[in-house]
Write a structure and sequence with these properties.
- By secondary structure, the protein is an all-alpha fold.
- 80% of the residues lie in helices and 0% in strands.
- The two termini are 19 Å apart.
- α2 (30-44) packs antiparallel against α3, α3 packs antiparallel against α4 and α7 (116-129) packs antiparallel against α8.
- The chain has a single domain, classed as Tetratricopeptide repeat domain (Serine Threonine Protein Phosphatase 5, Tetratricopeptide repeat), CATH 1.25.40.10.
Length: 181
């Protein structure tokens, strides 16, 4: 049970990083951007309901704002509403098929729901777009470990460590590698 608890806990640690990284494209509606930025601020303060409200206002003003869908999905994810989170990530990806963070976050949401095939698909797509992100290899390695793909799990976890996995995940990756070997 230890692996499962860490698996879900660690997924939630990754979300603020990618939510904060989403940037709004120049030329979008100024009011929509204002609501979006307020949503980012509220989310950073842990005020998820207010963040969702602001992202929703941004979306109402500019339904093409993929970043607002992705960040609202992240807020829903934190609240444990994985289905709504996935729906928002789906919309972000539909608007911008190269939106790497939306694939990453949707992959984490699917993994949290134990839908590992879909999680792998999204994490693979994310890695295809950004092969230098150690966290993506770490999480994909965890998914592989969950489904019994030991060699792939080891390979991804080693790659994550080689790329400089952040300290919040490094010890877990090392412990899991030790268990898998």
């Amino acid at each position: 049970m230890r692996k499962k608890a860490i698996f879900i806990r660690v997924f939630f640690l990754a979300l603020p990083i990618l939510a904060a990284c989403a940037t709004v494209q120049i030329g979008t509606d100024a009011q929509a951007v204002e609501h979006y930025n307020r949503g980012v601020d509220y989310q950073a303060q842990g005020q998820l309901d207010l963040a969702i409200e602001e992202y929703s206002k941004a979306i109402a003003l500019n339904p093409q704002l993929a970043e607002a869908y992705s960040n609202r999905g992240s807020a829903y994810h934190y609240k444990g509403n994985l289905d709504q989170a996935i729906a928002d990530y789906d919309q972000a990806i539909a608007l911008n098929p190269k939106f790497a963070e939306a694939y990453y976050n949707r992959g984490l949401a699917y993994a949290s729901k134990s839908q590992y095939g879909q999680a792998l698909s999204d994490l693979n797509k994310y890695i295809e777009i950004d092969a230098s992100d150690a966290s993506a290899y770490y999480f994909r390695g965890r998914v592989y470990a969950e489904i019994g793909e030991q060699e792939k799990a080891i390979s991804d976890l080693e790659r994550a460590l080689d790329l400089g996995l952040d300290p919040s995940k490094k010890q877990d990756a090392e412990e899991l590698l030790e268990e898998l070997r």
